[in-house]
Write a structure and sequence with these properties.
binds phosphoenolpyruvate, TIM Barrel, alpha/beta, eight-stranded parallel β-barrel, 257 residues
């Protein structure tokens, strides 16, 4: 008899959504999540302007919410920045940091991502730290080197108690939005590597999410892997039925067996 870990499924809406369509999606997800087994936790990370809407519509449901980024700064004359405590003001529990789109399009360094993770923790939120290699890096056999350095840069700034409060998402860049997910074995191999690093830091229980073209038809096989504790879901999180089907797949493999 083995017991699978509890699962966590988080939607990353990216820069999608408008008030009217969000309301329909949030209400459907809140309602659908109510039918999931207790062993599945669900969250959504929405654009900043919609945090208040997420709070209004998700409060009291099984779905938590949060942002897709925070500033590395705390407060002051930094036009356009959003500090982690501002995200917390809206009842959030989550904030993504280090998504590959921010690393690529906004030139975010591993060091900056690590500071952002600290800011999120200081605000009492859970950072979802995204890591992942490009196709070129994988082809060059550098996957472990790349994701290892990305993780180590964050862990170096944290105590083991702080590290234990992270969520880590392995998201191969080539799998994001491409329709080409990593295979379950490819993902499991990287997750096992990351797990060993977290164990060495005294944070072996950190949930390790896989992200990159997770869909209803591949979610269960991915979530069945021993070191995959759930998923970070982009495109499919914008469709209530697909997102809830992915959450259901997490439920199917997270029961006591
Ligand atoms: C993401 O951007 O975090 C992501 C996993 O996207 P997708 O599911 O669309 O590949």
């Amino acid at each position: 008899m083995s017991k699978q870990r509890a699962k966590l499924v988080v939607g990353n809406w990216k820069m999608h959504g408008r008030l009217a369509e969000n309301a329909v999606l949030l209400e459907a997800v809140a309602q659908g999540a109510g039918a999931l087994p207790e062993s599945v936790r669900v969250g959504v990370c929405v654009p900043f302007p919609y945090l208040a809407q997420a709070q209004a519509l998700l409060q009291g449901s099984r779905v938590t919410w949060g942002a897709q980024d925070v500033s590395a700064l705390t407060e002051g004359a930094y036009t356009g920045e959003v500090a982690a405590p501002m995200v917390a003001d809206f009842g959030s529990s989550l904030a993504i940091v280090g998504h590959s789109e921010r690393r690529a399009y906004h030139r975010e360094s591993a060091e900056l991502v690590a500071v952002k993770a600290q800011r999120v923790l200081e605000a009492g939120l859970t950072p979802i730290v995204c890591l992942g290699e490009t196709a070129e890096e994988r082809d060059a056999g550098k996957t472990e080197q790349v994701v290892g350095e990305q993780l180590d840069t964050v862990l170096a700034k944290l105590s083991s108690g702080e590290a234990a409060r992270l969520v880590v998402a392995y998201e191969p860049v080539w799998a994001i939005g491409s329709g080409q997910s990593a295979t379950a074995q490819q993902a499991q191999d990287v997750h096992a590597f990351l797990r060993a690093r977290l164990v060495a830091k005294g944070a072996g229980e950190v949930p390790l999410l896989y992200g990159g073209s997770v869909k209803p038809d591949n979610a269960e096989e991915l979530f069945r892997q021993p070191d995959i504790d759930g998923g970070l879901i982009g495109g499919a999180s914008l469709h209530d039925q697909d997102f809830l089907a992915i959450c259901g797949a997490a439920g199917a493999v997270s029961v006591t067996q």
